Amino acid sequence: MKMKFIKIYLLAAILLPAGTVLAQHMDSIPRVTPFSGVKDYRTWSIGFNGGGSSVSTPFSAPNDFNDIDFKNAGVVYGAYIKKQIYHGFGLQADFMRGQVMGTQKANQTPYPLNGLAGGVDKFKTAIHWSASLSGVFTLGTINWLNKQATVLPYISAGGGYMAYHTQVTGNGGYSYVDENGNLSSSKPSASKSFFIPVGLGARFNVATGVNIDLGYHLYFVNDKKFDGVYGTGRDDKFSSLNLGIEFALGNKQKPQLAVVNPAAQLAMDLWDRNEALKEELKASSEKNEEELQGVQQQIVDLQNLQKDSDGDGVPDAHDKCPNTEPGMRVDGAGCPLPQPKQIIKQEKVVVTQEDRKVVDEAIKNLEFDLGKATIRPNSYESLDRVAELLVNKNFSLKLAGHTDNTGSNSLNMRLSKDRAESVKSYLVSKGANPSRIEAVGYGDTQPIATNDTPEGRQQNRRVEFTLY
């Protein structure tokens, strides 16, 4: 039975590291800037565990009691708090209570003990408390096959101190063993001893910040009477197989340092930078195309230096007033000669507070398709009221388009102008006089807020209405 139990432990130790091959891809991995330290991670965690204990260990050196009694197996339970220092290393403080029990084989002579008739054939040690500090080395955090592993093997080692009572049983009944190794009919003061905990296991990342902890631990006790008898003359030891759960502490938006794959974080950062470079290249290509078109236009202009499009006798290259009407008298610069002045009576325009309210509502409700000059349908109702106001009161209106600083200057200038023209076209389609509407674009030259924040850029993307 002992060899079977040992083989199970050894098989678990072999298979746990292989679990990383079965790791599953995590769909959502929080982005962390590489080489930024641990400030963007959750490094503290707490855990609770419990399991069975045994005096049997995988080592050949025997205990005073070697047999495994599953019917009377000991139970241990505890909690821990851990501080992750690096991806693969952390410090863990463990607190444990429980029992360790052992019996001799049926054909083994009971160990003699002064004062207990027939010798000792079983013992039970109650661990009142134990505290230890261990270094935990996590394996498999750097994974080149998957973005994040769900199974993370670990090994640990450290030192601790415990307090316990040992009770031995033989044909003569049972008795306590005091801290000097002597029998006592009454419960003596607790024995205390240093011990060295060594463990291996695996943590299973089942949810964000939640891990299932399966571990096997050996405890080397610096005491020969932990099991009540001196027996082999060696320091005693015992083992435990534990199952527990671990919770990461801190900001839930941050990943847990112990389970994050640094190779994946580095790769994702490179992917982000690659996408940013693609966007820069796209913007640069658009700018180059725009400049090429400008050069082509200049070629056309040079070819048309001698062209007189309006037939006024002045070449276009020197015509300061192109497109004059046929037969109009012009000067040497191609501009019409002065005509007799006509006195035009100016009508007084009064803009009321209600008129401004109609315009302000239209500005507030005005929306365009992203990156386009197309007005969205939910803006029509407010613009209809502005058109009615222009028709009824014969107002003039200036439309000034503005953008944020995203994109090139020329693209921003064109988009702002197009959006102002789009509003003008809509108002004209509703009966407004096109000669009384002026549409201009200023691009990103007149911001009313900072362009360093999304809110500021939203305020800068606007079309201003001015009644007069």
UniProtKB/TrEMBL annotation:
Per the UniProt record, one Pfam family is: OmpA
**What UniProt keywords apply to this chain's record, in alphabetical order?**
Cell outer membrane, Coiled coil, Ion transport, Membrane, Porin, Signal, Transmembrane, Transmembrane beta strand, Transport
**Major location (coarse):** membrane
How does the protein's chain sit in the membrane according to the entry?
Answer: Multi-pass membrane protein
UniProt cross-references to InterPro entries, sorted A to Z: Bact_OuterMem_StrucFunc, OMP/PagP_B-barrel, OMP_bac, OmpA-like, OmpA-like_sf, TSP_type-3_rpt
| Gene Ontology biological-process entries | monoatomic ion transport
Coiled coil ranges: 274-305
| Top-level taxon of origin | Bacteria
State if Cell membrane is listed as a keyword. no
Q: Where is the OmpA-like domain?
A: 355-468
**May I ask which residue range the UniProt record assigns to the signal sequence?**
1-23
Q: Give the molecular function GO annotations.
A: calcium ion binding; porin activity
Q: Where in or outside the cell is it found? A: Cell outer membrane
**GO cellular component terms listed in the entry, alphabetical order:** cell outer membrane; pore complex
- Designated name of the protein: OmpA family protein
**Species, as recorded:** Arachidicoccus soli
